Automatic annotation (TrEMBL), chain A:
InterPro entries attached to this UniProt entry: ApbE, ApbE-like_sf
Organism, as annotated: Acidobacterium capsulatum
EC number: 2.7.1.180
Keyword Metal-binding: yes
Name this protein carries in UniProt: FAD:protein FMN transferase
Gene3D superfamilies associated with the record: ApbE-like domains
Taxonomic path: Bacteria, Pseudomonadati, Acidobacteriota, Terriglobia, Terriglobales
SUPFAM superfamilies with a match to the protein in the record: ApbE-like
Catalytic activity field: L-threonyl-[protein] + FAD = FMN-L-threonyl-[protein] + AMP + H(+)
Amino acid sequence: MKSCSSLPVIERAQPWLGTLVSIRVEGVPAEEAHRAMDAAFAEIAAVHRRMSFHSPKSDVSRLNREAMRGPVAVHSSTYSVLQCAQECARRSQGCFDISVAAELVRRGVLPPPQQAAHPGGGSWRDIELLPDGSVFFHRPLWIDVGGIAKGFAVDCASERLAALGIARSVVNAGGDIRVRGTDAELVRLSAPSSGQMAPVLELSEGSIAGSCAAPRSEAREELAHSVHLHGARRQTASAGRFVCVIAERCMTADALTKVVMAQGADSAALLLEYEASAWIKDSGCHWQHLGMEIA
Amino acid sequence: MFLPLAGLVLAGGPAYATVYLTVAQAQQLMFPGATFQQEFKTLDHNQIKEIEHLSGVHVLSNQLRAWRASTGGWFLVDEVVGKHDFIPFALALDNKGKVKGIEILEYREAYGSQIRDPLWQRQFAGNGPDAKLRLGRNIRNISGATLSCKHITDGVERLLVTYEVVLKPAGD
């Protein structure tokens, strides 16, 4: 019998969700690894198709066009993401809000959706998830699940690999990463730093998501185009702030980076509620740790 | 649930490259069991102009690396400009010229080498004495700087048009 150490490390990358998604599998023969990775990439592709803000055929685009006129049926995975988004919106008092898409369109970060009535105000509170799996908007809204779907896709792929008997895997969608297995994974944080120094974290059996707000030095337009908005106040995050969140599920880590980015130290209680941990670096300041202790 | 986290710093060092797949491996993954006939082509000036006009994407090279798959369809290898270096990728097209799959072949990133800095480490709360990073291992992950795949999407669009202009059988 072959020992684990002689088995190859197989890694592949494909473009999905507007970024590069890589999957690494260890400890199984190459053929089995590729079969499992094909299935895991198919999970990512399905999330991409259903939840894209850009594709007119996605669940998200159908909601933005039709959900204000009556309930719209969506795939169960889209429904799950919306449930998680609404829960995070409720717990963060609207700091996390998928209806900020209208503001992101206004700022030129997202293109205007086609044939969708322009929203006038409104928030996550106007989104109703009906028990039959359909979704209704109580007023015209534009939603974008870009702040959570990458993490969800990573979880789906990672869970698929585990279900196929892969014990050791790393799924990485543009920096939203989930690690399974006993060995720890080194993750470099691309926080702004002096010279060529950069911090590294070690992670095992968990997820990390990181985010960096536009730095002040890059002119005022950059801030106006920032993707980091406080859902309720619609203000941009502190210039140059770097945030990373560690949680068991990547979807949780992904969503919470937006809250920590907007609220800073005020998000400590929410992090504890989600059993998550965060590190923040503001320009000119030391690193700050929030949430669950990990030691 | 999670392993301890600790900090260290990186100093500038050699770039780190991940080779995902060789051309032969990508061929077998994307067209299992097929054999391949190499049909490399050099695009002429008019073809390049037409491809640029139809795709709206600049053509960097006049070399088209294409293989015909025995099971039907085409296997193409090309590259696009990445953040630090070129990103080579493979595109599989079915016999109608539709995308069957995309695989990144290689990715190079300036990750640097590792140097421990105890002062920096103390900035981390919850960093116990056992929280030591194992040095000497490659850092294969980076978080916080989402890489856009727009150049790859553009490259695929350019190759789809290249198929129409150069490879598609007349009359189809």
